What does this fold into?
Amino acid sequence: MEKIKTKFNSLGIKYKIFLYLISFCALLLLLLWVFQVVLMDKIYENVRVSHLYKAFSQIESVIVDNGNLDDIDDIAQENDTCVMVIRPNGFMVYSSDVSRNCRVHKMSYVEIVEIIMETQNAGGELKGMYTRKNPFIPGRQPDNSEINDGRKSLMYVREMKNGDKVQAYIILDAYLSPVSATVSAIQRQLQFITIILVVFSALIATIMARKIAKPIEKVTRDAQQLATGDYDTVFNASGYAEINQLSSTLTHTAEELGKVEKQRKDFIANVSHDLRTPLTLIGGYAEIMRDIPGENNAENAQMIIDETARLSTLVNDLLDMSRIQSGAIPMEKVRYNLTESLRRTVNRMNNLLKQDGYNIDFSADFDVYTTADEVRISQCFYNILINAINYTGADKKIYVYQQRDIGSVKISVTDTGDGVAEEDIPYVWERYYKNKSNHKRSVTGTGLGLSIVKSVIKEHGGHYGVYNTEEKGACFWFSLPVNN
It folds into this structure.
């Protein structure tokens, strides 16, 4: 069984659709044979029984309402049923003989009295079948030999009461027409229907399976092409709304993967260049200090130290990004004064960049406390500041705003540069992104600074964003939950 299940699961979609449709048609044919042939006799009997129940209710209404007893004859004709209404004392109230095969109207008075007594003993209701070869026996079912003679009848006797008092006994006799000929005709029809339906269903199943499977197979082939690294793949399979949507989604995915791949290549190029430059300088100054007398001085040593620090920053960015996204660095969240922490960072940066003419303006309405990892939030703020310093305008101005909102605080860093190209805005927070526009100072970095901001802020349950200001420049911001 397990092997069959495994083999079925390995089938292609068109073969499965074919098998499902064929199975459905087989089940439909089976149901037709069962209901039209095997159960035909039982269904017919149940229909006749329901007619007897209906006739009894109609006759009872006529008698209770003191209606015209001739209406009983109409009821008998309508239901093709013989009717006999008898008082408990044996007096016949009404009789309608509409069938030449009726046994009731051929019974003797003694036989009718015996049937009434049987009805009383059965609790007021009696039902049974009989054939021309055997008399009516309550609850008895004729055997096959009796049924084959084609003369089977159904008798139904029931008390008609007014409260607890029996007013009359209504005897109904319905002849069951032979259904063997009908069944034979239906069997012959079903044989032709079965052959036609099997051929037709196989044809339709084959066409549908191919039509449904074709666009899926095309999407699969295109996806395999995409898996090889061909990000120019265009998914153009169609035919169904779901396939159209899937093709559109996969095409967009291929485009995004292509952009990521391009960013990855740019990242490798940036890292290679940014690592090669300090390494070359360090190696060059070290050789000069070793080989040239008098060059082993503090100035050359400081150059080596500066380039080493530059290398360290680059490597740390890479390590931080990797560890933050893998969860290897747990966030040590404590309650602290966010405003004071931002103010210290701004003051430190102003002191460092004062000689280069840069000025960072910080404004806050009041001190705000938050629960967060102070080191990581400071790193985020520092990365955004460095980004603004790299791309600010000729006036070398950067503006930092702290704005308190309900339940959160927003920190905005605005420069006066050329802003961010609209098509680049969705990608500035991604790994490997590095703006290629002109900037006012030498930019060194891996393009991971803003991606680190994104990861850390998300880890703290905050939000982040960027937009171009109406005046000039770009505004990078992030928000955090606050405690006061």
In short: The longest strand covers residues 165-176.
